[in-house]
Structures are given as structure tokens and as C-alpha cells.
């Protein structure tokens, strides 16, 4: 399912790239505009500035699909203008507005420790982001976000790179996807809360929703790991996933082709911070000049797809598809529905009543459980009391029997003593009479 979705997504991306290639000549590194990075204050100056070629941005206010009450088509007439009016500048106005406001783009880099996440980000944006290598002994998966202000020509981009830390390092990887899904959801939640505020400031709001997730796959040459499949499945409905085979230079070209075909993976990349002189220009490479060579890896295609062609599409899909799904589920969970004719206060009152009934039900259940437990305890105590009484009676009976026996033995002894005394007396009398006879 995940693979099918990815395949469809990549098909669309490839089609778009093909379409854009027809419209626009490929941009070589030498013709890129000036790039400024405020956080790292690195700058790369190039000779030529590119012609600003903005894609026409659809005006949502005029979009008929959003119009709640579209005019009947029969009432709209086409008129010819007899001179220049000036509303053909609308696209330019939009471009100017967007450029003034600046753009934001958030990337999640998800992959095992040391798989090459930071290196690829540096290679993609031709700079050096802050990064510290992580260790393999952390108990759980974490995410670390860093935001940078970049500028190329007059376009400002607020880029947030969210790095996974300790992903795939635990022995039990069952819940490794959870912190990632939670992070993505909490960014959606923050945006939704801002949207629901009475005083919204969406214009200046720092949108932290993840627009794209680069999922780094280990260059094993075998099939995908269970962790990869489970995580991608969980993220599929929440974010635009772009799976990439990392460190593609570490397996042979034939193995790589097989792996790509078997797992339906389009991008195999090599990252490097080193620059090598090729002819008269400098290119990123790992000693062998492979990074920016399309015969050896798909880095150029990935950069083209992610940054130069589809950045705006990825932002739009995040808002219109993934956030919309989150928002819909959340509002439905809160009891809202498009079909009922109730007002907001009615819905709120209904929800409050339902909550009260639920609470009452829980309270009743708890009371019942308490009564049952008390009764159980009472029966237990009664049984224990009965047992004690029985043991007491038994002991009393035993005691009485023993007392009776002892009294019988006492009586016997007393009888024996009195018999003995009688015999003793008789003996003394006999002795006295014998002595009397002798004296005579
Ligand atoms: N052969 C090869 N080595 C690479 C490639 N990309 C990165 N490396 C090397 O792999 C090591 C780790 O790279 P990082 O970019 O720090 O990896 P990481 O995923 O950011 O690592 P953590 O942030 O610690 O999880 C470094 O020594 C890089 O030079 C690649 O495409 N091919
Ligand atoms: Mg890193």
C-alpha cells in the first residue's frame, strides 16, 4: 500500500519534472543565484543571477471550487476590453507579496544513526548546517529541530531541518515510529489551534508543519527492513515521504539498479561536503566525482524534485491534504459535522451534555464497582469470622474433654490415696496389736 502510494507520488513528481524541463532550461550550478545563510553567515556568489520565473500562483479567492455560491454560468458574459486596464499584473502582485513575506519549508530527515542525513542536507543546500553526530546508545528515538534563514537572490527561505536522533538504535524497535508521528501531529495541532483562535495571526505564524520527509534507506541491496515499512506506513497519510537510498556509492551499480527496481525506490544518493574541480567548475564529490553525476547517483534529480520543481507543491499538499485530514478528524472527534444544522453553541451544549452523561455513567460504574467490592470484602470477612468461631468452638470442646479426663484421673488418684491411707491405718493397727501380744 505504502509502496503503491509512493509509486503514484513519484509518477506525479516525474511527470511534473518532465513538464518543467520542457518549460525551463536546466540550471547548472554556475548559473545559480546568490545564496545567503544568516545562521551560518556563509555566502556563495555566482556570476549570473537567474531570471525570476515564478510559477503562476492560483488565486484562491477567485477559485470557483471554493465559492459557496457560484453564479449561474448563463449569467456570465465575455467582454472585450478596448484598452489596457492593468489587472494582468495580478500574478506579479502575488509574486511580490509572496517574496516580501518570505517562504518557509520544513524537512524531516529520518534514518538510522550515521546513515548520512546531515551530509545530504549540507549537499542539498550547498552549505553547512549545525550538526553533532549522535551515539548509538540512546534509550529512545528523539527529534531535533533547527531553523535557518536562507536567502537566494531576493527570496528568503526559513528552513527548518528536523533530524531524527537514535532512530533504529534500540533492540526493541516496535514503537520507534511513535515519537515521529507525535511530532508531526503536534505541529498540525499547533497550526489548528492558531486557526481556531479568535485573534489569529497566521500571517506572521511560524508554520512548523513538516512539508517533506526524506526517509533514508540503508544500502543493503536486499528488501526494505520491517522498521522502514512500518514507519513509512504510519507516516504515509501524514507527510510527503521521499525515500532515498543513502550512501549509494557503497554498493555496486548493478546491485543498486536491482535494489531500486525491487523496492520501487527512485532516488539513490551520495552526499559529500567536499568539492572537487571538474573541468572548470567545482562540484560536490566523494573523491570520485559521483555526487553531481547523474550516471552514478540521483542526487541531482532529488535536488531538482525537492527544491527546484516541487517545493511549492509539497507545501501545498501538506496544507491541502495532510493538514486537512488531521483537521477533519480532529473536528469530527470534537463533535462537529458538516451535515447537522446545529449552531456552534448548540453543538457545544450537546457536547457538554454528552460529556456530563459520560461522566455520570463513569461515576455510576465506579460506585457500582465500589459497592460490589465492599460486598465481596464483607462476605470475605464474614467467612473468616465464621471460621474463627468454628475454631473457637472446637478448641472449647477439646478443652472441656481434656478437663473431664483430668478430673476423672484426679478422682481416681484421690480414691487410690484414700485406699492407701486405709491400708496404712490397718497396717499400723496390726503392728500395735502384735507388739502388745509380745509384751505379755
Ligand atoms: N560513502 C559514503 N559516506 C557518506 C555518505 N554520506 C555521509 N557519509 C559519511 O557517513 C558518516 C556519517 O555521516 P552523517 O552525515 O554525519 O550521518 P548522520 O545520519 O547525520 O549521522 P547522525 O546525525 O549521527 O545520526 C560521515 O563520515 C560521512 O562522511 C555517502 O553518501 N557515502
Ligand atoms: Mg547528523
| Mean pLDDT across all amino acids | 83
Order of helices and strands: HEEHEHEEHEHEHEEEHHH
Overall structural class, as computed from helix and strand content, comes to alpha/beta
Gross morphology: elongated
Low-confidence stretches: 20-35, 39-68
Distance between the termini: 141 Å
Tally of contiguous helical segments: 9
Percent of residues in helices comes to: 40-55%
CATH architecture label of the largest domain: 3-Layer(aba) Sandwich
Q: What order do the strands of the largest sheet run in, or round the barrel if closed?
A: 2-1-4-5-3-6-7-8
CATH superfamily of the largest domain: P-loop containing nucleotide triphosphate hydrolases
Largest sheet: 8 strands, mixed
The CATH C-level name of the largest domain is: Alpha Beta
What would your notes on this structure say?
This protein has helices at 2-23, 90-101, 117-125, 178-196, 226-235, 253-262, 299-309, 311-333, 344-439, and strands spanning 35-37, 43-44, 103-110, 142-152, 155-165, 212-217, 241-245, 267-268, 275-278, 281-284. It is α/β, with parallel strands linked by helices and 440 residues long. The protein has two domains: 2-57 and 94-334, Rossmann fold (3-Layer(aba) Sandwich), CATH 3.40.50.300; 344-435. β1 and β2 (43-44) form a beta hairpin. It binds guanosine-5'-triphosphate and magnesium ion. Residues 111, 113-119, 131, 133-134, 247, 249-250, 270-271, 286 line the site of guanosine-5'-triphosphate (GTP).
Amino acid at each position: 500500500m505504502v509502496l503503491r502510494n509512493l509509486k503514484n507520488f513519484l509518477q506525479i513528481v516525474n511527470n511534473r519534472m518532465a513538464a518543467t524541463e520542457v518549460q525551463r532550461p536546466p540550471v547548472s550550478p554556475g548559473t545559480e543565484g546568490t545564496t545567503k545563510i544568516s545562521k551560518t553567515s556563509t555566502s556563495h556568489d555566482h556570476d549570473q543571477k537567474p531570471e525570476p520565473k515564478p510559477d503562476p500562483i492560483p488565486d484562491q479567492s477567485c477559485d470557483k471550487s471554493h465559492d459557496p455560491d457560484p453564479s449561474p454560468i448563463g449569467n456570465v458574459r465575455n467582454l472585450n476590453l478596448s484598452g489596457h486596464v492593468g489587472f494582468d499584473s495580478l500574478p506579479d502582485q502575488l509574486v511580490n507579496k509572496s517574496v516580501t513575506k518570505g517562504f518557509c519549508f520544513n524537512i524531516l530527515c529520518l534514518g538510522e544513526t550515521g546513515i548520512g542525513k546531515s551530509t545530504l542536507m549540507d549537499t542539498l543546500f550547498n552549505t553547512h548546517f549545525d550538526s553533532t553526530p549522535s551515539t548509538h546508545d540512546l534509550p529512545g528515538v528523539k527529534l531535533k529541530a533547527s531553523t535557518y534563514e536562507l536567502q537566494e537572490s531576493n527570496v528568503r527561505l526559513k528552513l527548518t531541518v528536523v533530524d531524527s536522533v537514535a532512530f533504529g538504535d534500540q533492540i526493541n524497535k516496535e514503537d520507534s515510529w511513535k515519537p515521529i508521528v507525535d511530532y508531526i501531529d503536534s505541529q498540525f495541532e499547533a497550526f489548528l489551534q492558531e486557526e481556531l483562535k479568535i485573534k489569529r495571526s497566521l500571517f506572521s505564524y511560524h508554520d512548523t508543519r513538516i512539508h517533506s520527509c526524506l526517509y533514508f534507506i540503508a544500502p543493503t541491496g536486499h528488501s526494505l527492513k520491517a522498521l522502514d515499512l512500518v514507519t513509512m506506513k504510519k507516516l504515509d497519510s501524514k507527510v510527503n515521504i521521499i525515500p532515498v537510498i543513502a550512501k549509494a556509492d557503497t554498493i555496486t551499480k548493478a546491485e543498486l539498479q536491482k535494489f531500486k527496481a525491487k523496492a520501487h525506490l527512485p532516488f539513490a544518493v551520495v552526499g559529500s561536503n567536499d568539492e572537487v574541480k571538474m573541468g572548470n567548475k567545482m562540484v560536490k564529490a566523494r573523491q570520485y566525482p559521483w555526487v553531481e553525476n547523474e550516471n552514478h547517483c540521483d542526487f541531482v534529480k532529488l535536488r531538482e524534485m525537492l527544491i527546484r520543481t516541487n517545493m511549492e507543491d509539497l507545501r501545498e499538499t501538506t496544507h491541502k491534504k495532510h493538514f486537512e485530514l488531521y483537521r477533519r478528524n480532529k473536528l469530527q472527534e470534537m463533535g462537529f459535522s458538516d451535515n447537522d444544522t446545529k449552531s456552534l453553541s448548540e453543538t457545544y451544549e450537546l457536547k457538554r451534555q454528552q460529556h456530563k452523561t459520560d461522566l455520570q455513567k463513569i461515576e455510576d460504574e465506579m460506585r457500582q464497582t465500589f459497592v460490589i467490592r465492599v460486598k465481596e470484602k464483607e462476605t470475605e470477612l464474614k467467612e473468616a469470622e465464621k471460621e474463627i468461631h468454628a475454631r473457637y468452638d472446637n478448641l472449647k470442646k477439646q478443652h472441656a474433654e481434656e478437663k473431664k479426663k483430668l478430673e476423672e484421673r484426679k478422682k481416681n488418684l484421690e480414691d487410690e490415696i484414700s485406699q492407701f491411707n486405709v491400708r496404712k491405718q490397718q497396717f499400723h493397727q496390726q503392728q500395735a496389736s502384735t507388739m502388745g501380744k509380745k509384751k505379755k
